[in-house]
Amino acid sequence: MQSQDVAPRPRPASAAAPGPVVDIEQAEAALVEHYPRLVRLAYLVLPPSLGRNRRVLTAHALTQRTLPRGRASGDTSVLPAQKTATEGREADPGYAYVRLRVLRTALEAARPLTFRAWPTRAQLPPLLPQVWGLRLFPRSGGADELALDQRLSALSAPARAAFVLRGLERMTDADVRKVLAAAGEEAPAAALAEADAMNTAEGADALLTSPEFDPCSLHARPTDLVRRRQHIKAAIAAAAAVAVCGALLGMPGDGWGPEGAAAPPYAQNPAAQAALDPGKLTLVPAGAWESSARTDFSVWPARGALTGDKGLLRRALAVWARPGGSVQVSATPGTPSGAPPGPPQLLYAGEVDQSRVVLLYDGLRIARYAEAKDGGTQGAALDFARVDGASGADADAVVLGRTDGNVRYLTAPWVRTAVVRDLLKSAAGATGAAGTSGTTPLARSADGVTEPFASPALQTGECRSWNVLELTDRTGTRLSTDLGELTPARLTSGRPGRPGDASAADWSPLACSLADARGQGVRSVNSWSYARQPLPDGSGTAEWLCTRAETWRGGGPRVLAQFHAPGQRFGAVAAKAENASACGSKDPHVLAGVLWKSVKGDWYLLAAGSKDTASIRATGGVSGAAASNLLAVQAEQGAQAVLKGTLSSGREIGGLR
């Protein structure tokens, strides 16, 4: 029950004639006063390919090097003149000077290195600042911030600068062209045109001020603690041991062959040695699952055309044990990314699109290693997903690869048929022929590799479709969806504690709300229709639904309460919470409310609790009570209310917010 006010767009800064000479005191005062804004500007212009940690440190380093070296700056020809009638930073020539210096060095740092010229200082990793033993990165934003960051990464550095100057600094196009030209860009008009061509949602400018792009408000995580401990021991060791370690670390290798992108070894013990030996991988026979009582990853056979490629397998194992700096490593929240405790199980090794892919399983995690099919070392990736306790539907499929917005799966050997179903096109209860009601048969190879299909994992903009994977085995048919993890999230429906396999009709009005759970390490999402409420104007009956996303790590569940009015295609999110017990097996209760406008134009506070809610009362901006699990009270538009409920057992619960 929150309302959002749209703030008026600030008046843009303007630039005209050259400004005055800026002395070092002016520049320093502007730098200190506006330091967070200047660092944010540098961070947004720098290429995301640097990685979040280096991007943060580089932004701070570039900003701190903007002060003039002498007592005064003679660089007056590149200072946009500010209107003296305004106040604040836009009237401060010192701020204009340091902003231009930040922009110029950030654009220089974004240029790719070439063999024709020596790299400039801005293009090299910063010497200072440095935080030893920690990786720093801004707080993560939501789906809108992620979508904006992805769009910005596709732009050139000058186009990013143009977009940021307009959105963050509120500059006119004419001023942007002048500042870009002053920063050394030869085609500022082309940069503006490229920024204009980027398709952004309404309000994208406001997202530039969000914590996602704030390099001054940071999270800190440790680097590889085991490696640091070993390095400290090596530093204290005797000279002979140091010499041996130095010889091992400095021994010339043969590139991508035996270990490839793996970093130097940090441990020498039998278990670590065995985990690097492709000859000791666990290989499950093809028919083992048919006679086993288990239906999990431990009975998946080794599949793919490259299961005998010892070189590929050795590289995958070595990179898993010691990923080097050139390897892109990702892990779902709560998933350790360290080396395997012993020889893992091989699930798949083969060519997928333009990559060679290896899937490995160590009883706790799925690890996916991918390298370029042409043998290049650039772009090698290592992804982890936690799958401890996976069985049955949780072990039906694993993502093999994503390309151009499409996803390709490796299915379990017990899967008989695979279908792609668009939840937004599936009619309620429709079970027609293949190809109708949003369903498309999904072809699979003899190894169980599916054809690619459009994934909703990175879908941005308006929600027009939501594809799910429908797999059938001898026990039934189940739905799962790609939420950006290696394993798809299972969709269920029913009362908490007793959910069952969901149908497309159960999830059709709720599909778009799944975007809230992307990238959170979600294991399953359950939908529960916990109440039906007659509307006070007699226009029909509304349905209250609760969706709960459970994670593999156990913590961090996401709960949404949704209100589905008659005649509406989708449900409206009434309340949401994280780490809440509501709608869960341990606390199968929920209470939520929403402001609703009737056909006649009257506003009401509608609230509903689960069936064991004996009474509801509203206080604050709306007052009312009901001796049941349903409440309808006339209210004013924009009113704020606090909901309290009493269960039949006498326990009080609060409204989900």
Keywords:
23% helix, 10-stranded mixed β-sheet, globular, 657 residues, alpha+beta, 5-stranded mixed β-sheet
So what's the overall shape? globular
What percentage of residues falls in helices of 4 or more residues? 10-25%
**Which blocks of ≥5 consecutive residues have pLDDT under 50?**
1-19, 71-87, 250-257, 427-436
* Biggest sheet details: 10 strands, mixed
Intertermini distance: 8 Å
> Radius of gyration in whole Å, from Cα?
29 Å
Number of helices: 15
Q: How much of the polypeptide forms β-strand, as a percent range? A: 25-35%
Mean pLDDT: 83
Which class of secondary structure composition applies to the elements?
alpha+beta
Number of strand elements: 29
Write up this protein.
A hairpin with a 3-residue loop joins β7 (about 355-360) and β8. Helices cover about 25% and strands about 25% of the residues. The strands form seven sheets. Strands 12, 13, 15, 16, 17, 18, 19, 20, 21 and 22 form a ten-stranded mixed beta sheet that branches. Mean pLDDT is about 85; it is low at about 1-20, about 70-85, about 250-255 and about 425-435. The chain is α+β, with helices and mostly antiparallel strands and about 650 residues long. The chain starts with about 20 loop residues before the first strand and ends with a strand. It has 15 helices and 29 strands. The longest helix is centred in the N-terminal third of the chain and has 18 residues, at about 95-110.
List the helices and strands and how they pair.
Layout: E1 22-23, H1 24-33, H2 35-45, H3 52-64, E2 72-73, H4 93-110, E3 134-138, H5 143-153, H6 157-167, H7 173-182, H8 188-197, H9 204-207, E4 218-222, H10 225-236, H11 239-250, H12 270-275, H13 288-291, H14 310-321, E5 328-331, E6 345-352, E7 355-361, E8 365-372, E9 381-386, E10 397-403, E11 406-411, E12 417-422, E13 439-441, E14 453-454, E15 467-473, E16 476-481, E17 489-493, E18 500-501, H15 504-507, E19 522-534, E20 541-551, E21 558-564, E22 572-578, E23 591-597, E24 603-609, E25 613-620, E26 624-626, E27 630-635, E28 641-647, E29 652-654
Parallel strand pairs: 5-9, 17-19
Antiparallel strand pairs: 1-2, 3-4, 6-7, 7-8, 8-9, 10-11, 11-14, 12-13, 12-15, 15-16, 16-17, 17-18, 19-20, 20-21, 21-22, 23-24, 24-27, 25-26, 25-28, 28-29
